[in-house]
Design goal:
With 399 residues, chain A is mainly alpha-helical. Chain A has 13 helices and 2 strands. Chain B has helices at residues 2-25, 54-63, 122-126, 152-156, 178-181, 188-192, 210-216; strands at residues 40-45, 72-79, 88-90, 107-114, 132-134, 140-142, 163-164, 171-172, 198-202, 219-220, 232-235. Chain B has a 4-stranded mixed beta sheet, with no helix packed on it. The longest helix of chain B has 24 residues, at 2-25. Classes of the chains: A mainly alpha (399), B alpha+beta (242).
Chain lengths: 399, 242
């Protein structure tokens, strides 16, 4: 069935090149970067209130980071050649360099930080557990069984240093995703120097919201009491970051409206028609203005704990939805209009096809499965778990 | 004996890899063709184009272009004098079979399109593995044995000239009939154009008539603000063309 086209598209433009899988890619890396930055609040900036989410945030970042390359792999025409990006990278390509940014972030920041933070727990578990579990923990120790005070102190110092390096790395990770789009001069919807910055702040927003929701959900599932002080603090940070993010996006929009260059009519028409629902309704009204208003309401009114929790849950869900819509509007929206600015095409998403809705859903569920395994293996909770609560103490600077 | 065996074990895979590169890098035999002596482009004389679509058909035939994709195509522009900024453009099946008769008053003309073989091409810049590149004689090519099919180059091309070949799952575009021009022939589209609206141009060859033409005519490239160093020059192009 032919793809519906309105006006004139260059003949090769009718079919969209980047599908819903490429929408997932910035969405997932955004969650990674945001979750890590939330974790670093506790580690570097000593925001004690968010401590209950520290390890959960790290594990969330890892679970999503492991899945991040999968949508790209699935999308490639020749996934078997993807390693060439590392072996023979083209240095002027933003995409090629992203491979190294990703690897740096995974290997040098996230895995190392998690390992250092959990090393004491891993060593203790390798001594107390039995059977296959014992084998796994023994492998995870990487042969380092020294958990003397001095050794743990070194872990702590090194972990602090890695987090310090990790913050700009997280910014780099997602800022770079923004650059991949922002540097395409052929596409006025993408081409903007603000794109990397907007991506960084939207990443922080989505990551903070996701960890907040995960913290609420997991605490409830474990029948534990939610630390409302922690939640209040996270919600506060979410609101501040969201306001900056929204301001940047509006700045970009105002600039475009005022300049009204040759692409403006075409883009404006697209926003008012094909992107009306996903951009104006879902992204801006439901996914941005409403959560900011809800979070602001909590700051102004004196609400009960239960009411606050409900508001945070609602605001968190709307935020994640809004950021997903933002990624959708960037990736899909950027391909719906012709580079001749004379016409519009349509995105038809398959269901069980290689780049359809089903693989996208599976790819979105996968990080939660990985997170479940990680949480089982490396419990992030401060209150309970097989390791005594003090178990996390050395890694948190109190040894 | 032991040392020899070890050496052999090291040398064999190395030799296999080296041989693969030798094979991949072996150009088609064109003994008299010197890469550095040419700098290819094309000249398109818009007033001469009659929109017959022969060029597009010849290209499809010559290069086995899949149905529904175009290495070259023709657009028909229709302009009313009071809305110069909003032309009506059409290109049914890339203009391959020509265009239906148009009796509407106003300005009507045809614009053949193809890869602009940009000297500063954004598509080669973004390729993550360098599978698409500018040859020393100025032609933008794709190594389909190396292309990942990531489609970043398709996004980066301001002119919509690239597509993903559904068979090879790699990026594809006009090669300026590289297999022909390196043998001293012209491109398939230029060869068949009944009015001479398309002319292959060797910008490094001082005897190429293109130099005289460029000196004496007002020629433009598409989207000059993109600063891509496009080498497809259009004579008599209306400002509304994009």
């Amino acid at each position: 069935m032919p793809i519906p086209v309105e006006g004139f598209m260059y003949p090769n433009e009718v079919e969209l090149q980047w599908s819903v899988l490429i929408v997932l890619y910035p969405f997932i890396t955004g969650l990674v970067a945001g979750a890590f930055i939330l974790a670093s609040l506790e580690r570097v900036f000593r925001v004690e209130a968010v401590k209950p989410t520290y390890r959960l945030a790290l594990l969330t970042a890892l679970a999503f980071l492991l899945v991040a390359p999968l949508p790209l792999q699935l999308h490639l025409g020749h996934p078997e050649r993807s390693l060439e990006m590392y072996l023979t990278p083209h240095r002027s390509s933003a995409m090629a360099m992203f491979g190294f940014v990703y690897l740096w972030y995974l290997m040098a920041v996230l895995l190392l930080e998690i390992w250092l933070d959990y090393r004491r727990d891993i060593v203790l578990k390798s001594q107390t557990s039995t059977g296959f579990t014992r084998f796994i923990y023994r492998v995870l120790t990487l042969g380092s069984n020294n958990i003397s005070d001095r050794s743990l102190h070194i872990d702590e110092r090194l972990g602090y240093f890695i987090t310090l390096v990790g913050i700009p790395s997280a910014f780099l990770l997602h800022g770079y995703v923004g650059f991949i789009f922002g540097s395409v001069k052929a596409n006025p919807w993408w081409s903007s120097p603000l794109m990397p910055i907007v991506f960084i702040f939207s990443a922080m927003v989505s990551g903070i919201a996701a960890v907040m929701l995960l913290y609420m959900l997991t605490t409830r599932l474990r029948r534990q009491e939610i630390d409302i002080r922690c939640l209040d603090k996270i919600a506060q940070y979410l609101m501040y970051t969201f306001i900056i993010d929204f301001s940047l996006e509006m700045l970009d929009l105002l600039q475009r409206i005022y300049e009204a260059d040759e692409s403006f009519r075409s883009l404006d028409f697209m926003v008012h028609t094909r992107l009306w629902m996903s951009q104006v309704i879902i992204q801006i009204l439901m996914g941005t203005v409403t959560p900011i208003a809800l979070l602001g309401l909590v700051q102004i009114l004196k609400l009960t704990e239960t009411a606050r929790k409900r508001i945070y849950a609602l605001a968190g869900c709307l935020t994640v939805m809004g950021i997903f819509a933002m990624r959708w509007n960037v990736v899909i929206g950027g391909q719906l209009f012709s580079k001749s600015f004379l016409g519009y095409t349509t995105y038809k998403m398959g269901f069980a096809s290689r780049e359809g809705l089903l693989p996208a859903i599976v790819l979105m569920i996968l990080p939660f499965g990985i997170l479940w395994v990680l949480v089982k293996l490396l419990p992030p909770w401060l209150d309970t778990g097989s390791i005594p609560a003090s178990g996390s103490a050395p890694a948190h600077g109190t040894s | 004996m032991d040392t020899t065996r070890r050496r052999l074990l090291v040398l064999l895979p190395a030799a296999a890899v080296a041989w693969k590169f030798v094979l991949a890098g072996t150009p088609e035999a064109s003994p008299n063709y010197k890469l550095t002596e040419h700098w290819w482009g094309m000249l398109i004389d818009i007033p001469k184009c009659i929109g017959c679509g022969t060029c597009s058909r010849a290209c499809t035939e010559e290069n086995d272009v899949p149905v529904g994709y175009y290495r070259t195509w023709i657009e028909r522009y229709h302009l009313d004098d009071w809305k110069m900024e909003k032309p009506e453009v059409e290109s049914p099946d890339g203009g391959k079979e020509g265009f239906p008769a148009n009796e509407i008053a106003g300005k009507n003309f045809f614009v053949p399109k193809l890869c602009n073989h940009c000297a500063d091409s954004p598509c080669t810049q973004v390729c993550p593995v360098g599978a698409t590149f500018i040859s020393p004689d100025g032609v933008v090519l794709v190594d389909k044995t190396y292309c990942l099919g990531c489609r970043y180059c398709v996004q980066a091309c301001p002119y919509g000239c690239r597509f993903i070949n559904p068979k090879t799952k790699t990026a594809e575009k006009c090669t300026l009939c590289y297999h022909r021009i390196t043998k001293g022939l012209t491109t398939a589209c230029c060869e068949v154009c009944p009015t001479g609206a398309r002319q292959l141009a060797d910008l490094k060859n001082p005897n190429d008539p293109v130099h005289e033409f460029l000196r004496t005519h007002n020629v433009q490239v598409l989207k000059p603000h993109m600063a891509t160093g496009a080498k497809v020059f259009y004579n008599g192009m209306d400002g509304s063309v994009r």
